[in-house]
Amino acid sequence: MVVKILFVTPQLGSWATHGHHVAPNQMHAQWAAYVREHGAAEVEVLDCKVLSIPFEHMLEIVKDKNPDVVVLGDILHSYGGFAVQKYFNEAAAGIKKKLPSVKIVVGGLWYSSLSTETLEQNPAIDFVVMGEGEITFCELAEALQKGQARFEDIPGLASRKDGKVVWGPVRELIEDLDILPLPAYDLFPMDKYVGHTYWKPFVEVVTSRGCTHGCAFCYEWSEHDPRAIKNFNRWRAKSAKRVVDEVELLEKKFGTKVMVIQEDNFNINGRRVREFCEEKIKRGLSMKWVSLGCASDWVRLEQDVPLMKKAGMFMGVFGIEVANDDELRRLDKGITVGQIYKTINILRKNDIAIVGDIMIGFDYDTEEIVKERFAFAEKVDPDVMWVGYLTPPPGSPLWRDAVRRGWVELNKMDMLKWDFLHPVVPTEHLSIEDLGRLGAWGMREFYARPGRMQRIFGSHFDELAKLCFKDVMAGVGKWEAGAVKGEKHI
User: Fold this and answer.
1) Cβ atoms within 10 Å of 398's Cβ, excluding its own
2) Residue of 94, 95, 284, 453 with fewest CB within 10 Å of its CB?
């Protein structure tokens, strides 16, 4: 029997400051490519977000396709944080009602860390893939193809046996990411993807896994098997040539013009960054790109930023997060205030647009601390300020602390607010309402600064950066409505 697998993304929204923003689901693209290469199944993708297919219509399409397996989930938080889990869970329940015999598999964000809770609370979900999914999911597909039933023997897989949740052994990490096939972009409507309303055709790519920094608030904590949480700090990367192979495929076959290298620390290895830029230039590839990185790594790569710009980088993103070195150490950020200032200077002198992220809502935050944080952001002066509310990621130290304090209760959560743009936990000194008010105040103060818009639009930035700024400005009011009034975006 050939197993028919359908990867489904339900219709959902995106972050208020991202406008119309939709990219191929990287988890689906990578899992589908791996299982197809190994001949374990027939694969198909249904992306209802980009195709604007409503929920009930989605259910009818899935019923007509009649797959053996449906896959839900994602590995990136770049359009909705954890809020997307609500739609995945509802899709699982709806699909199972239409097709009672279908096997439903989830993985990635949220699910990896909360596999037991997921299976206990969602009877429609049959399997949770914990951690890196390609090999585990492929072995599951092969087991289903052969009619095998000892799912508890598959490493990295959570399932049920006799009504109880059972885990397979811990799945070891993939050390050489170059063994993975290129993502299965051919399964997606690649001409329809858009970033920040104006960037198109658009894609988000993932070129490495793990992180050496281990910030206490990072969403990636939730993507690991809770028995192997140390894997969070195990950084591995695709080779520069392999990354450029993916860029070349995207540009030449699908006409993609803009990409965001979505992992938080693309610039952690200077030699790899240089090899990537040189190879991309050598092949004559014109795709523009955005790089996320840590301030300490931007500083180490100062001499390479002109090369990165020559290779098409037009925007750099990094976390400012808080206002002083003591706080940065407390959050295991691994950077200093001096490096934040220097990163701003490095990018600005190279006419690279700057996105700086700050966060509010840590347990010790007071109104004074929050206002100091916004004052610091104003002083370091990024071009775009992205404000995130502390949203405790499952598996992280902050999650455990919030559960202990009674600030997080799984069965009482309003998941659509868990998108990092709504305050969801109080602090020792501030209520959720206080945090919403302070966040809105900070956003207004920053973007109302005299001359900011004129500086951006009169700069030598790439036009794509100016369009991004335009899109962010259009979404500030919507962001504020979410933070203060609880209006939902995702």
Assistant:
1) 25
2) 284
Task: Output the 3-class SS for 19-55.
Answer: CCCECCCHHHHHHHHHHHHCCCCEEEEEEHHHHCCCH
CATH class belonging to 4-167 = alpha beta
Please give the Cα distance from 11 to 110 (Å, whole number). 19
Amino acid at 274: R
pLDDT of 387 reads 94
Angle at CA 431, nearest 5°, toward 426 and 436? 95
Q: Where are the domains of the chain?
A: 4-167, 179-485
How many other β-carbons are positioned within 10 Å of the β-carbon of residue 104?
Answer: 22
- CA 364/CA 241 separation, integer angstroms: 45
How far is Cα 338 from Cα 299, in angstroms, rounded to an integer?
Answer: 10
Show the DSSP H helices in 289-381 as ranges: 295-300, 305-310, 325-330, 337-349, 367-380
In one letter, which amino acid is 435?
Answer: L
CA distances from 416 to 81, 86, 387, 422 (A): 9, 7, 17, 9
**DSSP SS3 for 275:** helix
CATH number for domain 179-485, candidates 3.60.70.12, 3.40.50.2000, 3.10.350.10, 3.80.30.20: 3.80.30.20
Residue pair 112/130 in contact (Cβ under 8 Å)? The answer is yes
Measured in degrees and rounded to the nearest 5, phi and psi for residue 412 equal -120, 10
CB atoms within 10 A of CB 450: 7
Distance (Å, whole) CA 489 – CA 226 = 30
The kind and range of the H/E element at 152 are: none
Longest dimension (CA), the chain: 67
Chunked mean pLDDT (size 10), the chain, 490 residues: 94 94 98 95 97 98 98 94 96 98 98 97 98 97 89 97 96 96 98 97 96 86 91 93 98 98 93 98 98 94 97 96 86 87 96 96 96 94 95 94 95 94 97 97 92 91 97 94 94
The pLDDT value given to residue 327: 87
- C-alpha span between 342 and 327 (Å, rounded): 18
Residues 6+ apart with CB under 8 A from 235: 208, 209, 210, 211, 212, 265, 268
